[in-house]
Write a structure and sequence with these properties.
This is NADH-ubiquinone oxidoreductase chain 2. This protein is mostly helical and about 250 residues long. It has one domain. The chain is built from 12 helices and no strands.
Amino acid sequence: MNPQAKLLSITSLFLGSTITISSNHWVMAWAGLEINTLAILPLISKSHHPRAIEAATKYFLVQAAASALLLFSSMTNAWYIGQWDITQLTHPTSCLLLTTAISIKLGLVPFHFWFPEILQGTSLTTGLLLATALKFPPITLLLLTSPSLNPTLLTTMAVASAALGGWAGLNQTQTRKILAFSSISHLGWMTIILVYNPKLTLITFYLYCLMTIPIFLTLDTIKTLKLTTMSTAWTKIPSLTATLMLMLLSLAGL
C-alpha cells in the first residue's frame, strides 16, 4: 500500500474518532463515525485479495446501515424533543433505535455475524484496529447516552454476547476468528455493567485493549493464522511464544 495513502487513512481514523468522542451534537458524532468507516476501508482491502474486498464491502454495508439508523434515531428525538444534544436523548423510540444502531456498530449479539467474517478477511494489524480503535467511538456514545438507553434490551444483548462469544469461539481453528469471538464476549461484559456503572465499562475496555494489542502484534510477528501453526511456533521464537501464552491467560482472566 502507498505510504501516503496509509498515512491519510490512519490520520482520518484518528480524526474521525476525535470528532465523535469530543462532539456534543448528533450530526457531528455521525460525521465522525462516517469518516472512521471510510478511512478503514482502504486498510481492509489493501491486499487486493477477493476475501479482503468481500470483507471491505460487508464492513461498509453494515456500518452505513448502522450510521443511518443512528442518524434516524437522533432525528426522531430532535423531531419530538427539539434537542440535538447527545445527552438529551429522551424519546423512547429514539432510545430503542440508538441501542440497536450502536449494537450493530459494536457487533453485539444478534448483530455480530459481520465481525468474525471481516476479521478473517483482513490482516492482523487491520484486525487490531477493528477490534480496539474503531470500538472506542461507539462505546463513548454508549457511555454518554447510558442513562436513557433501554436497559432490558441492552442486558439481553449483553448476556447473549457473553454466552455466544464463548461458545462460538470453541470450535474455531483460525486465530483471527477466535479473537473476534473473544471481542464479542468481552463487549457483552462491558455492556452488561453499562447501565449500573459506566466508568467500570470504560476501565474494562481499556484493559481489554491493553491485553489484545500485544496478542495481535505477537501473532503478526510470528505469522500465526491457525492454531496448528501456533502449536509449532515455539521452535522459532520460544520467548515470544511463551509471552503470548501468558497474554492469552491474562485475557482469559486467569
